[in-house]
Amino acid sequence: MGTEQLLDALTAEGLGNRIEDREEVTAALKGMDRQDWEKIWEQAELHQIWGVIWQGIQNFPEAQAPGELSARFEKACAGMAYQYYYILSFTTYAADLLEKAGIRCMILKGIPLNMLYPREEMRKISDADIYVPDPEEFRQADRLLLEKGFRREQGFAAFHNGYTKEMGGRTCLLELHRTPCDRLADPGAEKRVGEVFAEASGRPDICQAPGARLLVLPAAEN
Fold first, then answer.
1. Which end of the chain has fewer CB atoms < 10 Å from its terminal CB, N or C?
2. Hey, how many other C-beta atoms are within 10 angstroms of the C-beta on 222?
3. Statement: residue 82 has pLDDT above 80
């Protein structure tokens, strides 16, 4: 069994999808040498899916990963968990500022997507994405964030503004969205996408993250 097939199997296992060829995968893992394990690590690092792959490996207790490599996986997973809860705290802080000012907003991408994983800290997350569908409220949100010490960054796409803020000795990034995604070149498709998100914005879901209750787009639109 090749490295790509093993990665597929470990990814499926890590995400909670039971695989049929467990005996073949187990035999392949038991027969791996250090170079083989390094290939697994390199792919996990390339795609930043340490948490998923490490969980997959742990689902095969017969697999004996080298101790130093196991330590690398555990360190990477601990860093992802810390980053997740840090960004969760930052996201809820920013959303709370807007909501208290009467600005209707929804969390995009990051936190709601992480909640779909077996453990939310398994997915790498690097920033907060907040969607403010009303144009006037978007302008109000921009002014409010600047008043609260956020710094507007340059070079972001036209469909969102970027802001940074120092919190807890670290710089956090917030993307404030006018629309959930960039404009499409095809006018008909762009019109339809706009209709879909306009309709979805009127029926948001509630995401119950650890210690936080967040307003989000419905799962399909998100």
1. N
2. 20
3. yes
